[in-house]
Amino acid sequence: MSRNIWCAAIAVLLGNPLAALAADDSDQQSVAEQIQQLKQSNAQLEQRLQHVENTATQAQARSSTAPSSVNSFNPAVAMILSGTYGQLRQDPAIPATGFAMNANNTGYVRGFSLQESELSISANIDPQFSGVGTFSLAPEGGISVENGFVQTSAMGNGLNLKFGRFFSGLGYLNEQHSHVWDFADQPLVYRVLWDNQYADDGVQLKWLAPTDMFVEIGGEIGRGLGFPGTDRQNKNGAGAGVLFAHIGDDIGIEQSWRAGVSLHETRRENAVSDAVPDLLGTSGGVSDSFTGDSRTAGLDFVWKYSPNGNIRERYLKVQSEYFQRKENGMLTYDYTAPGAIPAGANITDSYSDTQSGWYLQSVYQFMPTWRTGLRYDRLAPGTASVGASIAGDVISNYAFSPSRLTWMTDYNPSEFTRIRLQLAHDESRQGLTDNQVFVQYIMSLGAHGAHQY
Question: Which of 171, 127, 125, 114 is nearest to 149 (CA)?
Fold first, then answer.
């Protein structure tokens, strides 16, 4: 304390040495008063500092030892309400050509439709863990768990462990919830290869590198619950695995980018596909069953630009993803036919195919509350290799590449409200061109966390 007082006195003297040398008694009194004021000020600062340190120590002790109470445990609760009006020429249940054995959940219907409502609860559990529960409320009734996972908060060294049910880290769009999609529906490649979105029950480990450039590496093992896997009921071990890596960086204050690769592997067992078209033109198609291995590799890229780095005013986002799936196994053709034996060698034979798809989209926010976007989708059904005993029944080459062009504009008066108009020219089904119109609303109630890059 005394050292601070003497330093202050010396500073006063050095500030005007000539005047100090000629100072009279009144000047000396003034200097003494200033020194006294500095002494009192330092004492007050020390008291305040001690009070802050005591408060921090008490808070740390409470967080590490005291149990949660109604006041200290305060989870964030959010509800997403959404609905659409769809005007479509063709039945949305008709699958994309060449992908009848894949998932074809469009997520929309004709006319007015209440979409799934999403209830989300998240909170810190203790200094080591946090938890998230997201529940999907179906329009026709019923509740399902969309996400329900726990993740670590203090592993350190850039590591993060997540376990429970979660959206996989593969690709770019897959981890995003539907209310943050830039369009009313997913790209075609997500619809046919991932049933719109891939989720699983399992464990995920991510590592964030301690570098200026964003570098993230992760892996997952799971039950294989989500398509293209099949639910492993009453079986030990893992039914699916995922590896992914992402890198990214800023380019000045106006641009940023992220790129990634991913790999998914699973096994399908007795996966049944109904209404599959065949060479004999069976009315309503046939029902096939497939057992085999499935491997999907993907690439993703996103680039963002905002003048002066102000994303609230204007920004441009360009993103693209590509996935390729290779499946190899045994196909049981038309196993529901009268007199057919599912295990019979005469109707089961080898089957393999490589299918792929990609999309390219861009979204431009030209005003703080208005955006517009354009997306192009394309699929490649591939040419299947089919065993001799079923080669005459199964279409191996459809010679058609499904595609779609979509435009949207949406109005966002706040971060909690979005109203969207979307137009699409759909040529994903051979000979069934569809011009589609969608009007959509998305409303967010309650606290909602920030979304990922």
Answer: 125
